[in-house]
Amino acid sequence: MAESFVLNTGARIPSVGLGVWQIKPEAVSDVIYAAVKVFPDCPHALLAGYRHIDCAAAYSNEKEVGLALKKLFEDGVVKREDMFITSKLWAANHAPEDVLEGIDNSLKDLQLDFLDLYLIHGPIRIKKGTTMSPENLIRTDIPATWGAMEKLYDSGKARAIGVSNFTCNKLEDLFAVARVPPAVNQVECHPVWQQDKLRKLCQLKGVHLSAFSPLGSPGSPGLNGPSVLSNPVIVSVAEKLQKTPAQVRLPRAEVAVHPNSGYNTLEDLWDGEI
Ligand SMILES: NC(=O)c1ccc[n+]([C@@H]2O[C@H](COP(=O)([O-])OP(=O)(O)OC[C@H]3O[C@@H](n4cnc5c(N)ncnc54)[C@H](OP(=O)(O)O)[C@@H]3O)[C@@H](O)[C@H]2O)c1
Known about the structure:
This is NADP-dependent oxidoreductase domain-containing protein. This protein is 34% helix and 14% strand. By secondary structure, it is of the alpha/beta class. Strand 1 (4-6) and strand 2 form a beta hairpin. Helix 1 (25-36) packs parallel to helix 2 (62-74) and helix 2 (62-74) crosses helix 3 (96-110). The chain starts with a strand and ends in a 5-residue tail after the last helix. NADP nicotinamide-adenine-dinucleotide phosphate (NAP) binds next to loops.
């Protein structure tokens, strides 16, 4: 598997990222530190840790992610330029005048001067200051929101801009008005939902399709779709290779095992043969 992909900005995005959705604020700093740092005394540590962290204002843990990043930089574990940090504009900040506030809050919490990638979290908008529920939904104005995203790109606060959860139609609509084309569309994509049509469109338009929920997000509340881990093809490949379905499915990441992770060795987590 490629280590990175080239975006339409010319920048490289590491092919494997660590998403921090649903990681509790009190745990996320340790998770990030352990995922990025290579512990030299760990016999299973490989040469590189994660370099790509996928955050969002909506995950309510950016302050704690920021603390981990600051410590990693201060400890000399990695340099800012070696990390690829993504965040996302939440649905309550779609008004053009609120987009700058959205990125500024994320930058402040993450303790960064710029993001490598800033995404519109989804083509859905709620009234400012409200929570996600049907009565708070208001009509989106993606051209206006995108115009404000383009200003962030121009200013350098976001080195690439993109979208998330955009269908083919939404992406086509965006292309019709965009001065700066989206660099990324981050969508759910795995063997049970392969996004063939969207992938072809993204390829055609030079948009990097970034796949989230590689395991189909088992256990997430409200998600009752077909399970990746019990998919017959995945199960039969796993049986053939004598692996678990998750081992078959996940891309191979270069990781070290943190002593508090619940895994005793890297082999417990990943045997590295697939
Ligand atoms: N842009 C968006 O709208 C959006 C939406 C969703 C996700 N994302 C991004 O994608 C990232 C990953 O999403 P996700 O959490 O849905 O990913 P996922 O990997 O599909 O699902 C994670 C779930 O898989 C379980 N799991 C992990 N390893 C397993 C194994 N070996 N066997 C069985 N189950 C296993 C985890 O359980 P435990 O917790 O018990 O380990 C957790 O419940 C997020 O953090 C976020 O950055 C973006």
